């Protein structure tokens, strides 16, 4: 009894499969409308099913034996068999129903009433010109072959039949370098090219060096795979492999993918290129050091000059010892680290790097000139993943968090704000899975989390992203509304964004919630007042004469600079950047990041002034 109840509870009704258009068409079939006569038996035990590519010859005759049309050359056809994919291709109803009953090599005669061929109402296949679609007809079908096929293009213009399975899962893509044995035949079996001796055909994926359809098919193959790629004429583009494309309806390419070299355009603009020279061990990208890790590499650095001057080689200049560094800490040039993160242990790669991702923004070796393009030949010996926090007790977790936080602080002091922010955010993500067990642990956890959020806010402020800085401070104030440091940092972000009223509120609130913060708050308020006055002074200078008008007398005024001429874009930038910079910051807060702030009464009096102030970069101030 219990087992019956369990069975009832475990039963879940399956979702009914939606009816296809072919299923709806099959319902129209009436007895006697489709008759089959076996003319020659086939071989094997299986029949074609949905998803199979079927290749067959077809000859259509009237009931008295007159040939209407045929694919066979002896009956006036081109000698090219028809290829369809069951369940995908548009077919007449009689063949859609009849061919799945056949065996490979079988020849059968199907007698069809009009509704089973082109006389079907709303037939998806257009009838050939002058076709007698109103008559009963005989369709002689020879099923040459059928097999599972990979549909490469939705319009069935490119299909692939796998002969031998390949290795791994990775397939070539732009701009990989590919080696393959390739031969090509027309649909009737005529060989039109063969590259199966000597060296495999070499081409760069995405460079139009093989016909488009063939490249699409190869893009679905894995190493050592053998396949036939069927390409119809709309995908037969001219290429070095087939320079002349004649009036072929389709071409069958027999391909063996010998090898491909992983080439990655790291920036998408062709400047930072990673080319794999030797395969590593493991599966890409699962076994790559994607996360911050301790890495060991050998590398040779070369200038991109005619001599390929070597400026550093760990095997020579480092006493044969590999370079060991932690990723995510700015210890190597950015382009170097980006590429190493996508390497497998044991892999050797050649990296071509532009100066802005090499040594122009990194400590430059004396032998590397400024603005130099470089190449690194890198071998990833191995790496150690960061410690997994699973199973650690609370104190161990906090110790690990402190190590990462200290690293972030070092990066912040070095001016590497993006990297510092990534360290703080890493700990904050891990904290989502930490559950303090006592009140004391809860207090330590909250203080640490607040500190990390404020560090993130400081990074955003240094990066000029004021709105994100404010959002980070809000996360602290949501949990601890009386957090003086969070109020101070948010106030500084508001001030940098030009939202002076909000900044004043935060600085005044600091004094209320923590008397000890009054000196800092007072200094911030004084700085705020000075900045407001500076903004007003700049605005008055730029709009000289406008503020002398009485209400109702505001007229257009010519904006002039100190010399009396028109202000240029360069003058605006140089004159108006300073009021929006904090003393310790070096970048503006972006308007898009800052959102919409209060505009003051001046805009209500002069709406078009908003556009001018916006162009000048002072649209966030309030004119007093």
Automatic annotation (TrEMBL):
Region of interest called Disordered, as start-end residue ranges on this chain: 1-50
GO CC terms in record: cytosol; microtubule; mitochondrion; nucleus
Top-level class of the enzyme under EC nomenclature: isomerase
Alphabetized Pfam families for the sequence: FKBP_C, TPR_2
SUPFAM superfamilies: FKBP-like, TPR-like
Molecular function terms from GO: peptidyl-prolyl cis-trans isomerase activity
Extent of the TPR repeats: 484-517
Compartments (UniProt record): Cytoplasm, Cytoskeleton; Cytoplasm, Cytosol; Mitochondrion; Nucleus
Catalytic reaction equation(s): [protein]-peptidylproline (omega=180) = [protein]-peptidylproline (omega=0)
Domain annotation PPIase FKBP-type: ranges: 51-147, 175-261, 292-384
UniProt keyword annotations, A-Z: Acetylation, Cytoplasm, Cytoskeleton, Isomerase, Methylation, Microtubule, Mitochondrion, Nucleus, Phosphoprotein, Repeat, Rotamase, TPR repeat
Domain of life: Eukaryota
EC number(s) given by UniProt: 5.2.1.8
Protein name, entry field: peptidylprolyl isomerase
Species annotation: Gossypium hirsutum
């Amino acid at each position: 009894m219990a087992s019956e109840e369990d069975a009832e509870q475990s039963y879940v009704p399956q979702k009914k499969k939606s009816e296809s258009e072919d299923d709806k068409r099959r319902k129209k079939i009436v007895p006697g409308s489709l008759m089959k006569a076996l003319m020659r038996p086939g071989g094997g035990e299986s029949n074609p099913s949905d998803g199979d590519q079927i290749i067959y010859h077809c000859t259509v005759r009237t009931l008295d034996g007159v040939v209407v049309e045929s694919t066979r050359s002896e009956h006036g056809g081109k000698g090219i068999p028809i290829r369809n994919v069951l369940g995908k291709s548009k077919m007449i109803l009689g063949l859609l129903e009849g061919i799945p009953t056949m065996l490979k090599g079988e020849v059968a005669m199907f007698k069809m009433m009009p509704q089973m061929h082109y006389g079907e109402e709303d037939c998806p296949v257009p009838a050939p010109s002058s076709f007698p679609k109103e008559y009963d007809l005989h369709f002689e079908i020879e099923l040459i072959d059928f097999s599972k096929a990979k549909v490469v293009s939705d319009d069935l213009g490119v299909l692939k039949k796998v002969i031998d399975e390949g290795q791994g899962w990775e397939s070539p893509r732009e701009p990989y370098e590919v080696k393959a044995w390739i031969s090509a035949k027309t649909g009737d079996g005529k060989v039109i090219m063969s590259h199966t001796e000597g060296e495999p055909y070499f081409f760069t994926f995405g460079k139009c060096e093989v016909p488009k359809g063939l490249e699409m098919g190869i893009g679905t193959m894995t190493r050592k795979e053998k396949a036939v790629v069927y390409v119809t004429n709309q995908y037969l583009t001219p290429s070095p492999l087939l320079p002349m494309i004649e009036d072929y309806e389709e071409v069958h390419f027999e391909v063996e993918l010998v090898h491909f070299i992983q080439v990655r355009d790291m920036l998408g603009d062709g400047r930072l290129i990673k080319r794999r020279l030797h395969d590593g061990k493991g599966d890409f990208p699962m076994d790559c050091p994607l996360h911050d890790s301790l890495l060991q590499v050998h590398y040779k650095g070369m200038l991109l000059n005619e001599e390929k001057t070597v400026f550093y080689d760990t095997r020579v200049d480092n006493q044969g010892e590999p370079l060991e560094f932690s990723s995510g800490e700015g210890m190597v040039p950015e382009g170097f680290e980006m590429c190493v993160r996508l390497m497998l242990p044991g892999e050797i790669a050649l990296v071509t790097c532009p100066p802005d991702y090499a040594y122009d923004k990194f400590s430059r070796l004396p032998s590397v000139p400024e603005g130099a393009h470089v190449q690194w030949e890198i071998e990833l010996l191995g790496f150690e993943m960061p410690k997994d926090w699973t199973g650690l007790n609370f104190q161990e977790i906090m110790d690990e968090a402190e190590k990462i936080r200290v690293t972030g602080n070092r990066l912040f002091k070095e001016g590497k704000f993006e990297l510092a922010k990534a360290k703080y955010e890493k700990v904050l993500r891990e904290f989502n899975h930490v559950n303090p067990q006592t009140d004391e642990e809860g207090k330590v956890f909250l203080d640490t989390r607040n500190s990390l959020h404020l560090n993130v806010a400081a990074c955003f402020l240094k990066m000029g992203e004021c709105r994100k800085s404010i959002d980070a401070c809000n996360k602290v104030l949501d949990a601890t509304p009386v957090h003086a440091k969070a109020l101070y940092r948010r106030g500084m972000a508001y001030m940098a964004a030009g939202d002076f009223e909000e900044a004043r509120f935060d600085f005044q609130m600091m004094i209320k919630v923590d008397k000890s913060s009054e000196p800092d708050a007072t200094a911030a308020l004084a700085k705020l007042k000075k900045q407001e006055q500076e903004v007003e002074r700049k605005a008055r200078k730029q709009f000289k004469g406008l503020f002398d008008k009485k209400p109702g007398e505001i007229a257009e005024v010519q904006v002039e600079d100190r010399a009396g001429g028109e202000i240029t874009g360069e003058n605006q930038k140089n004159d108006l950047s300073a009021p929006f910079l904090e003393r310790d910051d070096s970048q503006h807060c972006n308007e898009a990041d800052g959102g919409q702030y209060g505009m003051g009464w001046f805009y209500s009096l002069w709406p078009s002034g908003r556009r001018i102030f916006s162009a000048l970069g002072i649209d966030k101030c309030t004119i007093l």
